[in-house]
Here is the input.
Amino acid sequence: MNKTISLTATFLIILLAAFGQDKIKPILSAQNFENKTAIWTQIGMGIINFQADAMYIYGKIYVTPTMPDSENHQLPTLSDAYLFPLFSLYKKNQGELVSGTPNECFLIVNFPNKATKEYNQLINELRPYKDMIACRNGNKAQPGKLRVLIKDKTFFQSLGEDRNCCFSLVGTLNDLDADPNDIPIVETTMSEITNWKGSGNVPFEDFMKLKDLVSKVHAKGKKIIVNEVPALKSAWEALLTSGVDFIQTEEPTKLAEYLTTRTDRP
Here is the structure.
């Protein structure tokens, strides 16, 4: 089994190196992986940015939004489902997650319970992968190829200015002036921008509002995620044309397939 996983990983690493940066999709996959190998399918489709719901269970962080019914559950750990595969990619690809790009990739770890023990365990579980991850040691920022983020501003701020950890914070549109090392990315919902539901053409005023918002976020050195997006081509096109960095979706392969046909158009 391990040999199969290794061969699959090696093949996909070669594939990523072959098609390069231009094939990476502007997708944030919010589909929780149910096993150790699911990530490779999405990486093979050019999806390299992820959000995982996670929970602290018996001393480890598992990928799940809710407590399992049985202690004999088959849920993967965060390390098995995300961190170790990405680290394997990083090592085999000679210090890059995607060949030929200096850009960071993102892994958002969302703890629905927002318990302190979960964040402390996350700090511990990130340590073996610190060479790959952007970290902060006091006032010194250590660059990395993977940016791990959380969504709990209260806990993040409790770490203080001299924090020593390997995760940053996902911000909101109210955080545009924050240090990009602390908040490199902000998120918003489609409904915060427009009442348009994706049917027909986006109203011109709303599209210009969206473009202006994207420009403001980029001017502050940050990236922007839009979530709760209708699974409609017209909605995807409006966001992509405006320059949004990531469309968050729980159906990443569907969006990736559309983007592939969009890129392949003559």
